[in-house]
Amino acid sequence: MTVTDSAFAKNVSAVRDRVSNGPSTSRRTLSTRRRLAMLALSIGGFGIGTTEFASMGLLPDVATTMGISEPSAGHMISAYALGVVVGAPAIATLAARVPRRALLILLMVAFTLGNLGTVFAPSFNELVASRFVAGLPHGAYFGIAALVAAHLAEPGKRAKAVAMVMMGLSIANVVGVPAATWLGQALGWRSAFAVVGVIGALTVTALILWMPRLDGMPTTNPITELGALRRSQVWMTLFVGMVGFGGMFAVYTYIASTLTDVAGLARALVPVALMIYGLGMVAGNYAGGWLADRYQLRGTFVGLASMAVFLAMFVVAAHNPISALLLVFLIGASGSSVIPGLQTRLMDVAEDAQTLAASLNHAAFNLANAIGAALGGAVIAAGFGYTAPAAVGSVLAVAGLAVLATAMWMQRRTDAKALAALS
Question: Could you tell me the pTM of the whole model?
Answer without folding.
Answer: 0.73
